[in-house]
Amino acid sequence: MEVAMRRLLPDQHELSLDDLYEGLTLPAGDARPWVALGMVATLDGAAAVDGATADLGGEADGIAFRRLRGAADAILVGAGTVRDENYGPPSGTAERRSDRQTRGLAERPRLVIVTGSLNLPTDHRVFSDPDQRPLIVTHGQASPDAVGRLEEVADVLRVGEGTIDLEAALIELGTRGLRRILCEGGPSLNGALLAADLVDEVFLTISPVAAGGGTSRIIRSEVPEVAHRFAVASLYEHDGELVVRYCRER
What we know:
Dihydrofolate Reductase, subunit A, 11 strands
């Protein structure tokens, strides 16, 4: 077997790159769905270069990204990230869709978009598949006109009054059978979830490059009153790229 990756924790082991997160499963959560953050960052914490993450991750991050999506009931993402990364409907090969069904999941994860402004054009490619209508999460004071416009291409959930109540949103997602949530950012959504202690795991790929300058970091929020501690569950290295799984210590 050609060795392509090293596992450093929980024990040192050499393995094929394809073994990374093979058979990954996420818990369903108890009072609310299980929430995992899936992020890639430079070694100085930048979330993107030139506004996009596409050039940050290497081979290992690409595999981690696919395996995480393959284990989730829903992909949670902010509208800004949808625009910046030009999100489309979740896809996947026939083999991956079949594997999800074998594990009791839907063929594809549901895309859930968080936005207070509802600043998304209805002709965006994220709305291009009528069989995969995204679920948009907003608040009770969102513009009725904007809600009506987006309801033509998506389902809309309103939680909270002037701001989005993320915990209530997660609980509602759970009632809809979405119990394993993968959050893909952006930094403000990551920060809001972490500040509210709603994150159970963090899957972080650290790219061996430095961005410098004023590039946005992977987390942007006010500091929570209490720091939330995470423990390293696993650590892999491939071609200088570190792939880390952190679990919340509760």
